[in-house]
Task: structure prediction
Amino acid sequence: MSESGYDLESLAWRLRSIVGEENVRTDEPMSEHTTFKVGGPADIYVIPDDADEVHEVLEECKSAGIPYFILGYGSDLLVSDAGYCGAIVAIADGMSGVTVEDNEITCQAGVGLKEASEMACELDLTGLEFACGIPGSVGGAVFMNAGAYGGEIAHVLVSCKVLTPQGQVKTLDV
Result:
């Protein structure tokens, strides 16, 4: 049992059945997952590979009454030395798929924004140049409408697939 009263072993076992044995860690030092290299251990650290796994992981966390935090690149994130009581759902560690069709790049939420910008450049696609120095994930950039040098994600985004707090998957236009 954790200090918060939930059964970590039982939850870890259930999460492993969703994302695989190697994608669930307990007492994971958050200092290894933040750009400032600070933070104590997370009770559970989960690495989903796709949106369906994210949905299932969040449902398990809600069912167990465990708090969770969606982690992208951990840029500009400060985690207490005491750690995190709950589950860290690490998007950037697993959701890094990219597809290219004609003049559109489709990225999963965990793709690095810098990497997406570099891919666009290699494909002679313009508009994402402003993002080359932003140290975050595509998902985080979309969530906060990241921008710099007069550009912003809303200027190049066509749509995004989101998971609502109610567990619905929706595609939202820019």
Observations:
- The chain is about 30% helix and 25% strand.
